[in-house]
Amino acid sequence: MILPFLYISDAGASGRGVFSSEDIDAGTLIEVSPVIVMSGDDRKHLDRTLLHDYIFEWGHDQQECCMALGYVPLYNHSAASNCEYEMDFDHALIGIRTVRAIKAGEELCINYNGDWDDAKPVWFQTA
């Protein structure tokens, strides 16, 4: 499920990103997408490829990884994100939910650290 007013567009230096053509209320579930779950051994191989930047740690013990389908791989990172992701390990799904109101035309971002308001640098940022 991807809400019909979400779209992919140019996000400048970040490449492509997910945007909304309509205002969205805080707390709105905007996407639920399936994931492909892979083993820790698979992750060792993926970490040596471009896919490293698009996979998520997966499982209650985070010993697996997953590739999300839908728009999920295209949400860019922001330490002050306006969305958060919710993992459903039992059903192999990731949901994206707004954490504040979104204006039409605004880019939707998640925090790659896991918590929507975690200000720690991520692997591609320099200190």
From TrEMBL:
Pfam families noted in UniProt: SET (PF00856)
Q: Which SUPFAM superfamilies match?
A: SET domain
Q: Where is the SET domain?
A: 4-113
Q: Which PROSITE patterns is this protein grouped with?
A: SET
Q: Give the matching InterPro entries.
A: SET7_MeTrfase, SET_dom, SET_dom_sf
**Which protein, by its recorded name, is this?**
SET domain-containing protein
> What does UniProt list as this organism's lineage?
Bacteria, Pseudomonadati, Bacteroidota, Chitinophagia, Chitinophagales
